[in-house]
Amino acid sequence: MQRIPVPNITLRQATESDWDFLAAVHETCMRDYAVQTWGTWLPEPRDACRLEIHQIIQSDDGEIGCIAVAEEPDALMLEKLYILPTHQGRGIGTLLLKRLIDSAHASGKPIRLRVLRVNPARQIYERNGFKVDRSTEERHFMSYWPLER
């Protein structure tokens, strides 16, 4: 199998004008998993979207997703890492996780995230050193520790 090369990936801060794009990416990437988990899809309310932690993922093909990371006093919280399905499987998620892991090492803070149990994204996190800390019926709570625990 021939591997598609990782495109040139850049990030830019999300702005109010990105709301429709962010909502569309969120629905495209998460709707099926939400329906599998809860039986329905509820879009994220506009006032719940913290634009200050969102960045738009850009490639040579244009805008292809978003990443949202909140820097808390004791951890980096990976709230979202959504890549449009047409751009998945190209190493973009891994590239962005490696950048975040570098930030974790620089800050000495762990990275924490949650992923729906039905979402196969758990595999990319595990391949990059994340461990499941605990699970509920709906989610896995995972972390990456840059330092020995």
From TrEMBL:
Note the SUPFAM superfamilies from the entry. Acyl-CoA N-acyltransferases (Nat)
Gene3D superfamilies per record: 3.40.630.30
Q: Which Pfam families match?
A: Acetyltransf_7 (PF13508)
Q: Which CDD domains match?
A: NAT_SF (cd04301)
- What protein name is recorded for this chain? GNAT family N-acetyltransferase
Residue intervals of the N-acetyltransferase domain? 9-148
Tell me the organism: Paraburkholderia dilworthii
Keyword list (alphabetical) reads: Acyltransferase, Transferase
